[in-house]
Sequence to fold (239 residues):
Amino acid sequence: MAYKKRHDGRKPGETRKIIAKAGVIPNADGSGYFKIGDTEAYAAVYGPRELHPRSQQDPKQGKLRCAYNMMPFSGQGDRVRPGPSRRSKEISMVMEKALLPVVDLEAFPNAVVDVFVELPQTDAGSRCAAISAASIALADAGLRMRDVVAAVAVGVVDGMKVVDLDYEEEAWKEGDVADIPLAMVPSTGEISLVQMDGRVKKDEFVQAIEQAKPAFDAIADAQRAAIKQRYADAAAKVE
Fold:
């Protein structure tokens, strides 16, 4: 049966419900929470602080390190094994690459900024939620940034171009599925992450990215609103 209508009633370019918050972890230097549908991510930032071992220090700029972790029973599929895995290491690396274009690390030579992301519940789009949460946390930590980084997956499910695939769409068995996680700097349109699971035609790929632009804007608006609310709440406490 062809996939002509999304199973949850969403329009092709519509994301699941988005919730974004800043300052959710009191003991971190900065923190963020991002939920899209049933996928939720908590991010905590520690630093800038001196990088050890010193052999890894860079006198010209600081270093960004990311650590991604899905809790054992967070996913829709098989139980996730506790501890680092090949997948978690790969996603940690792509998170760093996706966030680096907006973070000014030249102000912190020989230092490191650590970002830890935990996902207690997932229903597809986990790396995108992790990046979006981490971006909020970095801003909450007071680091100088060019912009936030918004992330969402686009794809083609049995010929239908969609934004923000959920687990049922990723696992669609009746036809071919292409899942394309993307991260973008909304103010410039710069794409800082592109990955792909599956195959897609070039014109479908371009159309899918174009279709996702309103979603990037919506995610960025939610991220910025969360950061503004965080500082508004802090100001209210001082008064």
About this structure: The mean pLDDT is 91. Residues 156 and 201 are 10 Å apart (CA to CA).
